[in-house]
Batch of 3 targets.
Target 1
Amino acid sequence: MELYSNTIGKNPNASLTIRTFPDGNHNLQQARTGGLREMLQASEHRASDGYYEAMADWLRTKVLSERT
């Protein structure tokens, strides 16, 4: 998060949105450890809590609002 804030986030023409999902791994799936073994052994892959809502909000504000 710090890397993006200090690079892309410093560009006044960039559109940067940073969200973190405490229960998620690098693939934004619910995880306890975030480790590769956990991901490979998972019987189902569920998105992190709030991920779909965050994407819908981003699409509404960044994509749909720019088209109108």
Target 2
Amino acid sequence: MPILGVIFDLGSTLIQRTGLELEKEKCAALAGIAAARWGCRDPAALAARLLEIRLDAWRRSDEDLVEHPAARSIAQAFREAGLPTGGEILLKAEAVFFEPEVRASRLYPGATGALETVRAMGLRVGMISNATSHNLILDITTKLGIREYFDPLVTSAGFGRIKPHPAIFAHVLDAWGIAAGSAVMIGDTLRADIQGAHEAGMRSILVDIEPNPANARFDGPATPTARVTALAEVPDVIRRWAAA
């Protein structure tokens, strides 16, 4: 079938990978603000508990393929610490929590060029990102100047399910009105991006710029249709498929 649409992941696909150290920094930053603004008496304990809740939420999401949003984790940590959990406070707390991640985000070399080339080929371009905050992905893509490329831009926080659940892929395909065989998923994670795409009937490209350590568990059962080590290679792979 002809290639009509391309779906990109974000983290470790178009932007550089972040890790546990940044997550600890985010928890500490929010705890410091909570002490200054909302009367938190033990910010170190709040930071440690929020990190614990976040890690548990990731584990549960991995098991049930349901997103557990950051706002819910923050609210739980605040309640346990005796802090207010009103709507405006949680919105501000979530923004403070993710600010270090937005600030640290960096595009991989060739990311904008690959997006521009794929779009110039006349293909639909979308995004599916597993993320505990929809606003985080909007903020990162806006800051890096790539938001305009994605229609639709779907996050697990906004949709409710995480990759590799088939419904999140079907959501984009239905929005485009194209068959799964005419779409390509591009991502760094064998289970979420590659296995998920194949189960949905799509082709896949594994972005292996910074090899994902979690992929070792799925190397074999989830074999990508193609593999690249630089984003500049992506348009050439799609052209080869189109020519074939």
Target 3
Amino acid sequence: MRTLTVRFFVAAFFLAAAAVAFGNPFKSKIISGTDSVLVITVPGDHFLKITNFTQDGGTDRAVVEVTLPGDTENGGTANVLTATRIDLSTGSNAQNSPEINNRVTIAGPAIVKITPVVGAKLFISYKKERDEGSGGGGGGGGSPTPIPIFSPTPGVTPTPGGTVFPFPTP
């Protein structure tokens, strides 16, 4: 029994080490008010998942700005996420209740910019992943797999003849 337990823990250790070594980790950045603009380029076959975007201090609200290359029709730029304030003791947000942190996923090709806010520290966690083209309904690449449709066809065609229920004759 002891050997089985030791083997189990050794196997669990190797599986945990492999998960840590090959996992696609999130990246985190702290942006101060004096830093330069953070620019994240998302290629066409990738997407960017932002899971945390918070702001400590400052009076203006920080935003995540996305520019889509080639979209000159609509100006090409939009704010898609605002920072969640974690210090509600200053400014116009002094009496508000705690805010809820939202998440956003941005499909490439896109250019994501985060401009620093004077007097604030921003914290962002994100992960850039490759779009494997799962084809899950939105034209995710590749050709669709045809689904076979089976329709039942009778093997024998019944022909009328005789009575359905035989009646005894007198």
